[in-house]
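How a chain folds remains the central question behind the approach discussed here. In the encoding step, the backbone of a single protein was reduced to a row of integers, each denoting a local shape. We regard such an encoding as a compact summary of how the chain folds. The sequence in question and its structure tokens are set out directly beneath this paragraph:

___
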Amino acid sequence: MISETIKKNLSNVQQAINNACLRAGRTAADVQLVAVTKYAEWEWVMALAACHTTFGENRPQQLAERQKLFPDANWHLIGQLQRNKAKLAVQHSALIHSVDSLSLLQSLANIGQQLQVRPRVLLQVNVSGELSKSGFEKDELLNAWDRVVECQQCVDIVGFMTMAPACEDPEAARSTFRNLFALREEMASSAAAMAHGMTLPELSMGMSGDFEVAVEEGATIVRVGSRLFEGV
């Protein structure tokens, strides 16, 4: 029963992504679904793994543990990252979504040099300006952009991530997603980015309650958890 329920939920989420892509004139292949498993029991994760291979965890320690148990999957770190856990994240993550400061980005660059790897990361941007959310403020990112781009030598900065304000109406998130898309376009066309070959192709935005709106506004990665495990 667990496997069938999860398989049906996955199909429903994928269909919702497809429908949102159709409305936006996009193809579903442009959108990657990250299954958020922070509250999921391992049995549920394994049931989902029979038909899906990209997962997101909030805590570096739990990500490392689960990545060792299922190394064939792509594991993304989507939660806040402290610098003392940065090495663990680099070692076990295919993509780090939550680089929320220049100092953290520079730490990841140093760790990448030490380990002789080039971590793939997203810059977390606090588009909504909520005090409860971490991430670069827009003006902060603009002012630090030259120093951010310098880190591209050691870190593969592939795009941006944001979280919309919590709200029952998904439409309330639209302006947040639209503003992140516009910021990405602005930054990708900057002289510094073009000089370093930074195209910033990825936009990680949208969760269980608002991912369809996010896809309509240009998300290339959506982070969905509770919708995948309903009824389990």
Summary: The mean pLDDT is 96. Residues 2-228 form a domain with the TIM Barrel fold (CATH 3.20.20.10). The chain has one domain: 2-228. DSSP finds nine helices and eight strands in the chain.
